[in-house]
Specification:
The complex is a heterotrimer of chains A (282), B (241) and C (287). In chain A, 79% of the residues lie in helices and 0% in strands. In chain A, 44% of the residues are buried. Chain C is mainly alpha-helical and 287 residues long. Chain C folds into two domains: 40 residues; 224 residues, MetI-like fold (Orthogonal Bundle). Helix content of chain C is 81%, strand content 0%. In chain C, helix 2 runs parallel beside helix 8, helix 3 crosses helix 5 and helix 5 packs antiparallel against helix 6. The chains are: A mainly alpha (282), B alpha/beta (241), C mainly alpha (287). At the A-C interface, helix 2, helix 4, helix 5, helix 8 and helix 10 of A face helix 1, helix 3, helix 4, helix 7 and helix 8 of C.
Chain lengths: 282, 241, 287
């Protein structure tokens, strides 16, 4: 996916290159359609089974809505926290950078589902006194997911900050800029641009991670689908092939969401791209 | 104009500057030569306080500047610096690079800063490249923008740290021409360089530094043709090849 | 010899380090205090129950390693296929056919990787599981779950590893094959003796990270009933009423493996930094 974007970024707005990325999109759509058709033939199911959609459709919508809502909370939260932590991480004061390092190592070292499960246990009980409600466990777990992603994002931002050549910071100082001015006018504009591509990746991961909330019973897209499995085997007239239909549809939705997010960030990167800014590797 | 009085600097246990005393009068163009590691860059950075001297005093226009209570940003506005690796802000155009300092540090209005920046870019011969980004400019062009950027702050003096050492040979001339013109106009400047032609043309005095001390100073003719010290002779013969 | 500045800097540094340690330990201590205070800590439980957790850890390790190795084979092949540049078309019908085949294979590889990276592992697991349930309904459910889990994990890591191999090969590829052939190597020999050795060096750190990532991702197999480490922890937390202890053990076991290995990889990466070789990091498994 990276190669088309590289050529676009090199030549801003050149018409020939726009055509190339359009071709890629058409290729992808055709390819995906062919693939879906073949899949249905091979596994003997139908993506458009009307009876299935009659029963599942409502849950499908609800599930998507819940997932989007969680994404809407977790993404901004984790980004802000991750940015702030990344900034602290490069401080020359160990008092600031060490705790952050420990935080990052901890959250990157354990599986996110572990965080979800135990956050729902501990968080819900610890906070029960203050905030009651059945959604409490879910929200605490979602918060925990935000903390988890923030750990990864802090590393992305840290790499972004460190990619700005030191000489430019010196030059800014030589002009008489205060540290805050240097940060705001020289470091930040470049660090943020450099962070965009890996950030898009991480955002896609966050979207996928929301499915983990189903492990504690959340009715996100994955959760409602799991619930519906009971219906498949209990209701009359249900076909076991509905499993395939359902999961394929669910997969397509997640795919659409992750693709949308990465494309938006790639678009932003292209829009603000300045030649001479090298990429960041995280 | 600029006075350095018995300045010492340590990096860990390394005694980089061992008691440098130097006077640069107003309007003078001083050239410093010497082998790498002799402390030339460190000396320059002690003047605009990018590096803090461990001992000794630095005066700019009569003001003692290496004090605890000094406003560093003010000091750096008095003295402009041009770096070996240009250090242009890659996310800004040439014009924006030159405008940034006046707007953010001096609080000049955008229009005024823009006018001034255009004038300065014209002065260094890059009026046509105002909207180009550093990555689109050659090394020589980038360095000239860097000079314009430093001049935009209306400094009383300019410090040049090996400004042409990172340039391809064909671009050295254009930068030296700008610096020569600047010297002719009466700008006080300290230039660390290996360019002997430039030194002979522009400098009234050349200072030879080695191992953290000033070994010799004098007229360009004296230093190049009749160096008094052995090490000066050895160094000069190597670069005058 | 130093100076006043130097001495002051040293003192600040020491104070800073001490403060950092105190702050870190303090925060961790505080959190533990709250949790232990709320949920208690039973050492007898830990002493008696840890074999159960180890059994779970073994399942985690076993599943991860099998999937990783098989996935590596898949990943290498697909990665190589996708790294190869579009070669010059031979004229005529034969040329068009060859190009057509290469194109289709490459696009299939692209699609496969996109599907793996664009969908959650949870969905991949249950999808494979559904297919197996339908096709092989006669199988013992535990066996079925294990096979489904292994297939899904393998497919998943295969996709991510193919990206790693592709990036590694591509980073080296440019110009080197030409140079090698100018000396007289055939295309295959150039690959074997020039490109691959360098690519191998580039590929080891991200591949190690991928193993760690897969280890963590294997926790998702609990959704089809595989009893790996996290599932053990969850059951002990709920059914034995020992949430804090199970949290401590599960977290401890994961961190025990992931943190040291990550640090070693970071260290190796820093040492292995070949100047002139870009650091192309492909994204690794993050569920």
């Amino acid at each position: 996916m990276a190669t088309a974007e590289a050529s676009v970024a090199d030549v801003r707005g050149h018409p020939v290159v726009r055509r190339a990325s359009l071709i890629r999109v058409i290729e992808a759509v055709i390819g995906a359609s062919i693939f879906l058709v073949l899949l249905q033939i091979l596994l003997n199911f139908s993506l458009l089974d009307p009876e299935f959609w009659r029963r599942y459709g409502g849950s499908f919508e609800t599930g998507i809505g819940t997932t989007l809502r969680f994404v809407g909370i977790i993404l901004p939260l984790s980004a802000v926290l991750g940015f702030f932590l990344g900034w602290l991480r490069i401080s020359r004061f160990r008092t600031l950078s060490w705790p952050v390092a420990v935080y990052v190592d901890f959250f990157r070292g354990i599986p996110p589902i572990v965080i979800v499960i135990y956050a729902s246990i501990f968080g819900a009980a610890l906070l029960q006194v203050r905030f009651a409600g059945k959604d409490l466990a879910w929200n605490v777990a979602a918060l925990a997911l935000a903390f988890h992603s923030a750990a990864y994002q802090s590393e992305i931002f840290r790499a972004g900050f460190q990619s700005v050549p030191r000489g430019q910071i010196e030059a800014a100082q030589a002009l008489g800029m205060r540290p805050t001015q240097t940060m705001y006018n020289v470091v930040l504009p470049q660090a943020l641009r450099l962070s965009l591509p890996p950030l898009g990746n991480e955002f896609a991961v966050v979207i996928k991670d929301t499915s983990l909330l189903a492990a504690i019973g959340t009715l996100d897209l994955f959760g409602v689908s799991q619930d519906f499995i009971q219906a498949v085997f209990l209701q009359p007239g249900a076909s076991v092939y509905w499993l395939l239909t359902m999961w394929t549809a669910v997969a397509l939705v997640y795919f659409a969401m992750t693709t949308a997010v990465t494309q938006v960030l790639l678009f932003l990167e292209r829009k603000f791209h300045v030649r001479g800014l090298e990429g960041v590797s995280v | 104009m600029i006075r350095v009085e018995d300045v010492h600097k340590y990096f860990g246990t390394l005694h980089v500057l061992r008691g440098i005393t130097l006077d640069v009068s107003k309007g003078e163009a001083l050239v410093i030569i010497g082998p790498s590691g002799s402390g030339k860059s460190t000396l320059l950075r002690c003047i605009n306080l990018l590096v803090e001297p461990d001992a000794g005093r630095v005066f700019i226009d009569g003001v003692h500047v290496n004090r605890h209570d000094i406003n560093r940003e003010w000091v750096r506005q008095q003295v402009g610096m041009v770096f070996q690796s240009f250090n242009l802000f890659t996310h800004l155009t040439a014009l924006e690079n030159v405008m940034l300092g006046p707007i953010r540090v001096k609080g000049v209005s955008r229009e005024q800063a823009e006018d001034k920046a255009k004038q300065l870019l014209a002065r260094v011969g890059l009026a046509a490249k105002a909207n180009a980004y550093p990555a689109e400019l050659s090394g020589g062009q980038q360095q000239r923008v860097a000079i314009a950027r430093a001049l935009a702050m209306d400094p009383k003096a300019m410090l040049f740290d090996e400004p042409t050492s990172a340039l391809d040979p064909e671009y050295i001339r254009e930068v030296l021409d700008v610096m020569t013109a600047l010297a002719r106009e009466g700008m006080t400047m300290i230039v660390v360089t290996h360019e002997m032609g430039f030194a002979s043309n522009v400098a009234r005095r050349i200072v030879f530094m080695d191992g953290g001390v000033i070994l010799e100073e004098g007229h360009p003719q004296e230093i190049f043709e009749h160096p008094k010290q052995e090490r000066t002779r050895a160094f000069v013969s190597k670069i005058l090849r | 010899m130093g100076s006043l500045e130097d001495v002051r800097r040293q003192r600040t540094r020491t104070f800073d380090t001490i403060a950092a340690v105190v702050l870190t330990v303090g925060i961790i201590g505080l959190l533990l205090e709250v949790l232990v205070g709320r949920y208690g800590l039973s050492w007898t439980y830990i002493a008696s129950a840890w074999p159960i957790y180890l059994r779970g850890a073994w399942v985690t390790f076993y599943v991860t390693t099998v999937a990783y190795i098989v996935g590596m084979g898949i990943g290498f092949i697909i990665g190589w296929a996708r790294a190869a540049r579009v070669s010059v078309r031979k004229p005529g019908a034969q040329g068009a056919a060859v190009f057509g085949v290469k194109y289709t294979l490459r696009r299939m590889g692209d699609g496969y990787v996109a599907a793996i990276r664009g969908t959650p592992l949870f969905v991949q697991i249950v999808f494979v599981s559904s297919v197996l349930v339908i096709r092989f309904s006669s199988l013992d459910p535990n066996q079925l779950a294990l096979i489904a889990g292994l297939v899904a994990l393998t497919a998943n890591t295969g996709g991510y590893q193919s990206e790693i191999f592709r990036a590694g090969i591509q980073t080296v590829h440019t110009g080197q094959v030409e140079a090698a052939r100018a000396i007289g190597f055939s295309r295959w020999k150039a690959m074997r003796h020039v490109v691959l050795p360098q690519a191998l060096r580039l590929v080891i750190p991200p591949l190690t990270n991928e193993y760690i990532g897969l280890l963590k991702a294997s926790s998702l197999l609990l959704v089809i009933g595989i009893v790996e480490l996290t599932e053990i922890g969850r059951r002990e937390a709920f059914f034995q009423g020992k949430p804090f202890e199970s949290f401590a053990i599960v977290t401890g076991l994961y961190l025990l493996i992931t943190v040291p290995v990550s640090k070693i990889v970071e260290y190796i990466e820093r040492r292995l930094r070949v100047p002139g070789l870009g650091s192309q990091q492909a994204p690794t498994t993050r569920v």
